[in-house]
Amino acid sequence: MEPYYLLILSASVAFVLGYFLGGNARKGKNKALLDEARREAKELLQNAKLESESIKKEKKLQAKEHFIELKSNHEREIYKREQRISEIERRVKKNESKLQNEVRANDVLRVKLEKEIDFLGVKQDKLKSKEALLNDKLDIQIQKLEEISKLSAEDAKNELMETLKEKAKSDAMSYAQQHIEEAKLTAQQEAKKIVISTIQRIGTEEAIDNCVSIFNLESDDVKGRIIGREGRNIRVLEAETGVEIIVDDTPEAIILSCFDPVRREIARLSLHRLVSDGRIHPARIEEVVKKTQRQIENEIIEIGKRTVIDLGIHGLHPELVKLVGRMKYRSSYGQNLLQHSREVAKLCGVMASEFGLNAKMAKRAGLLHDIGKVPEEESEKPHALLGMEWAEKYGEKQEVCNAIGAHHDEIEMTTLLAPLVQVCDGISGARPGARRQVLDSYVQRLKDLEKIAYDFNGVNKAYAIQAGRELRIFVESEKVSDNQAARLSFEISQKIQTDMTYPGQVKVTVIRETRAVNVAK
Predict the structure, then answer these.
(1) Among the residues of 330-382, which ranges form H helices?
(2) 215 forms bridges with which residues in the sheet?
(3) Which residues lie closer than 8 Å to 246 by C-beta, 6 or more apart?
(4) Phi, psi of 168 (to 5 degrees)
């Protein structure tokens, strides 16, 4: 509407101007100018009227278009709302129909359950009547039996029990007497088996060695000093010790990898000295490694001396003492070799005393039986033969040398010490958890032991306990009687004896439990 107002304003100005100019004309000054002004004012008024009519029509058209657009949007919104309402109504009707179907199904199920309850109640009443009838018949039968036997039911039961007791005592005495006679014939042999089985159950500490050692650092900044410029420090350290040094992203730690525990220990101690001192360069590394090697050699000799003194072995050659000390840094199938040799020596001493042999000589052979596993240079000979050669070289007696060389059957056994060392070596190595490769077979043996018990009827549960030295079996009292339990124990022990290989003895215990359960209503 702004152009319309401008036109009106222009016309008004023109009219006022014409009025003042007309006053002057009446005074006779400018009549022609007055006429011209009036004419222009009229033209402006006409143009303003025309322009205002045009603008008015245009605004009306815009208003109509806007109204039509608003009406269309309103109709679309109403249509969408009606669609949503229709969809909601459809879902409500569908849910209502589903609920009605479920209600009808529940009504049918309730009617069915009520019928079954009524049927079971009738059946229960019939069973109660039959039970009462049977009890009456049982009382009649008991009365007839009492009349025939001239004994009451309690007296007859007591008499039967006394008869069974006497028969059981007689059978037990006969059975015990028979086995006592058999035991006397094999007493010496069984005694030796018991001694071996007892020693086999010795419980000792297990020690597992790895092929890597972890060297801890105070901060990761030390890693760069250990590596050195262009890696010269770590190359010298690896060359001097023969150990692979792994420097990775592990925080504040370096890994030392080597199959030889002695070299690995030398590298670990050398690194400790270098880091503590702070001076790390090739010349200093060579100096520290040599000092550490001498320290380890002295420590090996001290370990050998302490081991020999602890076991009470005297007169051992210094080189053999050194070999004994080196066993501390050697493992066999994950088992520390020095600990294994000490254990074998103790077992040999105990068993030799039981068999009336020289206990000190047996300890000596047991301690030295694996010295062939710690050579300073690799050898193609079996460790038993290499150990026997060293023992002969350093003046050991023939009985000890033969026991060392024959404990893996590489040569013929000529003395009683040889099988003794062989058995004790097997006992120490086969002990549960002693060696890594034995652990898996040990667990499998326990599983097989329990599986044998489950193959028999009436067995409810079976547990292998005491490291596989006892199999405890629980049977179902309804399926297995007391006599059958004894026979079951014997049959399972025979099956274990024929189907399995195991050290020592396995005790089979069958447990039968009778329970009487009633419910108070």
Answers:
(1) 337-354, 359-368
(2) 254
(3) 254, 255, 256, 257
(4) -65, -40
pLDDT tens, position by position, 26-80: 545 567 887 787 888 888 888 888 888 888 888 888 888 888 989 889 998 999 9
Residue pair 197/423 in contact (Cβ under 8 Å)? The answer is no
Q: What are phi and psi of 459, to 5 degrees?
A: -80, 125
The predicted-structure confidence for 168-199, as pLDDT tens digits, reads as follows 776 776 676 676 667 666 666 665 665 565 45
3-state SS record for 381-409: CCHHHHHHHHHHHCCCCHHHHHHHHHCCC
Token pair of 54, please? Answer: 């045009």
> Is pLDDT at 521 greater than 70 in this prediction?
no
> What six digits make up the tokens of 490?
């014997």
DSSP annotation of 208: B
Residue 423 neighbours by CB distance under 10 Å: 18
Tokens of 22: 């007309």
What's the CA gap between 143 and 149, in Å, rounded? 10
Tell me the Cα Rg of the chain: 55
Which residue do the tokens 């062989």 mark?
422
Rounded Cα distance between 391 and 398, Å, is 9
> For residue range 247-301, what is the model confidence (pLDDT) as tens digits?
877 787 888 877 667 778 888 888 888 888 888 888 888 888 889 888 888 888 8
Write out pLDDT tens, residues 200-237.
Answer: 545 444 434 455 678 888 877 788 888 888 888 888 88
Are the C-beta atoms of 299 and 262 separated by less than 8 Å? Answer: no
Burial class of 216 by CB neighbour count within 10 A (0 to 12, 13 to 18, 19+): exposed
d(CA 319, CA 316): 8
Length of the chain: 521
Q: State whether the Cα torsion 126-132-134-137 is positive or negative.
A: negative
How does DSSP classify residue 218? S
pLDDT at 491 over 70: yes
pLDDT for res 92: 92
Give residues with Cβ within 8 angstroms of 322, minimum separation 6.
300, 301, 304
CA 26 to chain CA centroid, nearest Å? 124
Cβ-Cβ contacts under 8 Å for 133 (sequence gap 6 or more): none
Q: Which residues pair with 245 in a beta bridge?
A: 256
Tell me how far CA of residue 143 lies from CA of 129, 326, 468, in angstroms.
Answer: 22, 89, 55
For the cut 80, the answer to whether the pLDDT of residue 23 exceeds it is no
pTM here?
A: 0.45
Residues 6+ apart with CB under 8 A from 250: none
Quick one: pLDDT at residue 190? 60
Q: Which residues have CB under 8 Å from 153's CB, separation 6+? A: 142, 145, 146
Do 215 and 272 meet the contact criterion of CB atoms below 8 Å apart?
yes
Strands 507-512 and 470-475 turn out to be parallel
Give the angle subtended at the CA of 218 by the CAs of 213 and 223, to the nearest 5°.
70
